[in-house]
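Hey, quick one: can you model this chain's 3D structure?
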Amino acid sequence: MSRCVAFLDDADALLRGRGDTTWPRAAAFLIRLALEACLADYWRRTAPGLERCDTHVQIVCLKGYGDPVAARLAAGCWAALSRACHYHGYELSPTAAELRGLHGEVRTLAGRLG
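Sure thing. Here's the predicted structure for all 114 residues.
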């Protein structure tokens, strides 16, 4: 089992209600870890060494390597998950529906890059 799938499975367990009250942020972190693992696995296969770059750089390079759809998907998920992972005193935590949508998008991205 790849790290990406393992992180997505753990996030899925949290989204199904097996977590405590901190589950929204924990699920967001797990989904973001899955996205990072998915990108790292892709770069290890296609352009070794690029997996050590910052995630933002990896997403920008993804567009240049011929999959603009995956690049748009990764950029959107990365931005939403980064926002969800940080506490903002004036915003609510991400909802289960929002996280479920991001979970599905990262799973789709993993399928495209896998």
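One thing worth noting: The two ends are 12 Å apart (CA to CA).
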